[in-house]
Design goal:
Distance between the termini of chain A: 40 Å
Number of strands of chain B: 11
Order of helices and strands of chain B: EEEEEEEEEEE
Number of strands of chain A: 11
Helix content of chain B: under 10%
Number of helices of chain A: 0
Order of helices and strands of chain A: EEEEEEEEEEE
Shape of chain A: globular
Radius of gyration of chain B: 13 Å
Helix content of chain A: under 10%
Largest interface: A-B, 21 and 25 residues
Radius of gyration of chain A: 13 Å
Structural class of chain A: mainly beta
Largest sheet of chain B: 7 strands, mixed
Strand content of chain B: over 45%
Shape of chain B: globular
Oligomer: heterodimer
């Protein structure tokens, strides 16, 4: 069974940093590209970042480029999102999501981890 | 980044049919944007319904279908059931960046 479990959320100060993790199981992690998607309270979904299966191709949404860093450890089945210079607009639930193919993104999701940013 | 628009809310009667659309301000939506559709219920993670315009997952109800309609991506819910009440999001691919629509809240009333 495919499982994605996020962790690392919590309370951060505005201007501070936080590192999220996503532990996966039930599939060969190194064969799949991965993403982070977030959802502010009461708002819609926002794609945050993408990393290819090998980690050599990375994309970011304009809203986080230069502040967030996505990475992965294929040996440990872990996906990361390092977030810095946080603002209140970064608050919300952060999901990791697996791509099956380029035309079949976000085919599996974790349950999310909540990030709160105090001003 | 590109803006993708959806109807903010739609209401449908049980057993009825409703069509949700997904438009891009950059122009007509084509299959090259790999339109995807997701359903989200309160307190739950999103669940994929349709990928690459009109392909269903094994768990996608047969009464749900995806298409291209008048330069937009579309999701049609037929024979709507009370459990279909949810938020629905489209997703378009812009060559590296993925952009969600603002979501459509479907009420079954």
């Amino acid at each position: 069974e495919v499982q994605l479990v996020e962790s690392g959320g919590g309370l951060a100060q505005s201007g501070g940093s936080l590192r999220l993790s996503c532990m996966v199981s039930g599939f060969t992690f190194s064969q799949y590209s991965m993403n982070w998607v977030r959802q502010a309270p009461g708002k819609g979904l926002e794609w945050v970042s993408y990393i290819s299966s090998s980690g050599d191709t990375i994309y970011y949404a304009d809203s986080v480029r230069g502040r967030f860093t996505i990475s992965r450890d294929n040996a440990k089945n872990l996906l990361f999102l390092h977030m810095s210079s946080l603002t209140v607009d970064d608050a919300g639930v952060y999901y990791c999501a697996r791509d099956r193919r380029v035309d079949e993104p976000f085919e599996s999701w974790g349950q999310g981890t909540l990030v709160t940013v105090s001003s | 980044q590109a803006v993708v628009t959806q109807e903010p809310s739609l209401t449908v009667s049980p057993g009825g049919t409703v069509t949700l659309t997904c438009a891009s301000i950059t122009g007509a939506v084509t299959s090259a944007y790999y339109p995807n559709w997701f359903q989200q219920k309160p307190g739950q993670a999103p669940r994929p319904l349709i990928y690459s315009t009109n392909n269903k997952y094994s768990w996608t109800p047969a009464r749900f279908s995806g298409s291209l309609l008048g330069g937009k991506a579309a999701l049609t819910l037929s024979d709507v059931q009370p459990e279909d009440e949810a938020d629905y999001y489209c997703l378009l691919y812009f060559g590296g960046a993925q952009v969600f629509g603002g979501g459509t809240k479907v009420t079954v009333l």
